[in-house]
Amino acid sequence: MLNPNRAFPVLSARDKLLPFYLLGIGLHHEQEHIRRDRGILDYQWIQCRSGEGKLKLSETEYIVKQGMGMLLFPGQKHEYYALSGNWEVDWIIFDGSGSASLFETVGIVDTCVFALASPEYLLSRMRELLQAALTPQEQTLSNYACSAILYTLLTEIIQRVSVEGSDTVGQQYERLKPVLDYIDQHFAEEIALHTLAGLLCVTPEYFCHLFKKTTGIRPISYVNQVRINKSKELLLDNVQHGMQDIAHQVGFESASYYGAIFKKLERLTPGAFRRSYQKS
Questions:
Q1: Is 44 exposed, middle or buried (CB count within 10 Å of its CB: 0-12, 13-18, 19+)?
Q2: Were both Cys, which of 52, 164, 198, 216 would link to 65 (CB 3.0–4.6 Å)?
Q3: Pair 115, 12 in one domain
Q4: Given CA atoms 245, 249, 255, 259 in this order, what sign does their dihedral have?
Q5: Taking the alpha carbons of 203, 207, 209, 210 in that order, is the dihedral positive or negative?
Q6: What Rg value do the Cα atoms of the chain yield, rounded?
Q7: How high is the pLDDT of residue 165?
Q8: What is the pLDDT of residue 91?
Q9: d(CA 83, CA 54)
């Protein structure tokens, strides 16, 4: 009899062109002792339901308890096993061209163990993924559905993981929310670094560090991106307005500087952007 808590989708060559694709999934799995001297061929996420186990890498050991998960990268030697009694886990095996770059967005480049915020939410998403994998429909359509759910699951994982007591990505962005809201409301005005830092009650130096650690860019770069995006609406909705007027409305001192930033970010000039959306 087939295990209703496990599935291994059949993938075509076309399915493997998807940026994310599911290779296998198992829920309520009693984890056995695994040792892979050459690592695993793909990516694997293993989330602890109950009990506890140990993950051994070449130079590091981790204890994996309830509310924790481990992300295994391809080709990295590892070993994991239960420490006492039953170690129940849920797991997915996946791959795709988008996997490495997705994890890089939050600085995950290696096998690691994570504490999870709201682990039960991720388990419900995994149940949804299993259901899609088991749905008796045309196989390719099922794999596309799995790809969409898998992408959602992975983005939710990276928002909820933390290492050694650090904030999760979601918590980091929540801390920046007063700053992001302020920029969205005051983009047309002069925005000083000390003003943004003051919203978080930190020094400008620490604010810059925190902002770049969370978003990957400097505060001024983010402000410019918001201003350029706002200007796109004005370019299309106010075709009679010149570039100097548009520049001032979104917080740039001159049309030339506005044009330079627009071209740097969008790879075309504001005028070319406006023309590309105008009716012929």
A1: buried
A2: 52
A3: yes
A4: negative
A5: positive
A6: 24
A7: 56
A8: 97
A9: 6
User: Mind spelling out the 3-state secondary structure of 52-70?
Assistant: EEEEECCCCEEEEECCEEE
Helices and strands in the chain, H and E counts? 10, 11
Residues of the domain holding 206: 169-277
Residues 57 and 152 in one domain: yes
**Could you say which residues of the chain have pLDDT below 50?**
280
User: What gap in Å lies between CA 106 and CA 280, rounded to an integer?
Assistant: 43
CATH number at residue 76: 2.60.120.280
Q: What is the pLDDT of residue 161?
A: 80
Per-residue confidence (pLDDT) for residue 137, from 0 to 100: 59
Q: What is the C-alpha to C-alpha distance for residues 259 and 131, in angstroms, rounded to an integer?
A: 50
In a domain, 1, yes or no: no
**Are 15 and 134 part of one and the same domain?**
yes
What is the 8-class DSSP label of residue 24? E
Q: Does residue 182 form part of some domain?
A: yes
Q: Looking at the structure, do residues 69 and 95 belong to the same domain, yes or no?
A: yes
- Look at residue 231 and tell me if it is in a domain: yes
Number of domains in the chain: 2
CB atoms within 10 A of CB 210: 18
Q: Are 56 and 79 in contact (CB under 8 A)?
A: yes
CB atoms within 10 A of CB 114: 24
Q: What is the pLDDT of residue 168?
A: 67
Q: What is the pLDDT of residue 111?
A: 93
The single-letter DSSP state of residue 261 is H
Query: What confidence tens digit (pLDDT) does each residue in 51-110 have?
Result: 999 999 988 999 999 989 999 999 999 999 999 788 999 999 999 999 999 998 888 889
Measured distance CA(100)–CA(241) in Å, rounded: 44
DSSP 8-class letter at 75: T
